[in-house]
Design a protein that fits this description.
Elements (H helix, E strand, L loop, with lengths): L4 H6 L25 E2 L2 E2 H10 L8 E3 L17 E3 L1
Parallel strand pairs: 3-4
Antiparallel strand pairs: 1-2
Length: 83
């Protein structure tokens, strides 16, 4: 069975009112559905390890996702953010 990508993406419209929001990745003590890693929010730990080291004034970042731009704000120091 072949799935049309446009139909698949359209199926997510309206799923989360205002867009998906797991939590604030820049809040070290914020709440996350993924739980805590010791004393640090899991989203914040992900930001520290997977985003912060790679975003700088020379970076062109690609932001993908149906959210409220929570992760986008972690990339604001990039040269350009595409979505």
């Amino acid at each position: 069975m072949k799935i049309d990508l446009k139909d698949e993406l359209h199926s997510f419209n309206g799923l989360w009112k205002g867009g998906y929001f797991e939590g604030d990745p820049l809040d070290p003590m914020g709440v996350s559905g993924y739980g805590q890693l010791g004393f640090v929010n899991t989203l914040y730990a992900t930001y520290l390890r997977c985003i912060k080291p790679y975003i700088n004034a020379d970076t062109v970042a690609l932001e993908i996702g149906p959210g409220r731009r929570g992760w986008t704000k972690t990339m604001l120091s990039a040269k350009e953010i595409c979505d």
